[in-house]
Please model this.
Amino acid sequence: MAEALTGEAILVATEEVLRRYGPAKATVVDVAKALGVSHGSVYRHFPTKAALREAVTRRWLDHTHREFAAMSAHGGSASDRLRAWLQELFDRKRRAHLEEPELFETFQVLVKESDSIPEYHVGHMVELLARIIRAGVETQEFMADDVAVTAQAVWDATDRFHHPSHAPEWGDPHIQAAFDAVVSLVIAGLRYNRGPSSAGDA
Amino acid sequence: MAEALTGEAILVATEEVLRRYGPAKATVVDVAKALGVSHGSVYRHFPTKAALREAVTRRWLDHTHREFAAMSAHGGSASDRLRAWLQELFDRKRRAHLEEPELFETFQVLVKESDSIPEYHVGHMVELLARIIRAGVETQEFMADDVAVTAQAVWDATDRFHHPSHAPEWGDPHIQAAFDAVVSLVIAGLRYNRGPSSAGDA
DNA sequence: CGGCTGACAGATGTTGAAATCTGTCATCCC
DNA sequence: GGGATGACAGATTTCAACATCTGTCAGCCG
Model:
């Protein structure tokens, strides 16, 4: 026989099958066929179809996480880095949605299939945001009582520009202006934000 | 015969049929049956089923708009009024979603059926936000170059707490804390927001 | 022996024929 | 005359028979 069947080879084949057939039509039998084995063999490496799909998704997200971790280390003021990081995130998602809608849709479906994946992904992205904000707090460019809470608030406030359920709006020609307005508002808030109990300031 | 068949009576009957059967099962024949007329008569008052559904939705939204317009006039500082207005919006939607999920789902479907309805609704709500922000700018509590743009940014930044596609998250016990964090960040930004070109300030 | 196979049961998805619905309009009845 | 009716054509939905898929496992083969 040619090669030992590895989990890695199965993941690669599964990703290819998902790209070709989409999430609704891709079957374990297709994956086995692509590898020239019986579908029973696939179940020796992954307990269920759901686990297999989740492993593919996690591998892909880990790759993305590494790229954004590198981005959050780039130079400039904390505001500039934050704006650039959010802009890059928005640009990538928007481009993926507009230029490869089927692939974007596929990964959106995969991510939603599991509860733990979105948690994992969002947790990771918010931690990267927190790094930028923490740096800004250290140089006194930003104010934040609780960096973790603030980072989550920045993530939530920019939801419209990264949450896939808003993807249909990303083709709107005014969307970049809306992004700029929200990010400017958020950055202004970071420069002068004393947290949930700040209602009495002026 | 009992009464003349009016557009108003048809709207009331349609709303009842929608509540009872849901948006997928509610038919024009059901509406006609509820009114004791033939379905042909309904088409004398509304050109299509879509127009009928849209009229029901618009009537319901207009009612909501009136209530929120009243809210945005209440006293207190601009921050307090803004926070209270956003909280009321969030509370109503969250309660509707958690306590009457089927009815909430029904109206969500109706709103999405038309392109003009969401535009109409969001435009109206953003205008109400703009009124509160404008009052804040006049008392120098807030800063905003362009109130309309800023109001839209506030709406967008709080999307997670009013856009129906985020409804599944509204049952999360931490959601109120997330809401408070975002609103605090936004209000801090309004106190010190010079618009999209403010990246060079300090 | 140990990974691989393929037949199998129950679950899930597909398909096409039958039923229902939408929108029209010639006709009816007050 | 003018609003209401109900039969009708084409579009959409439902439903059940059929096909495929998932996950298991006893047995095969290197």
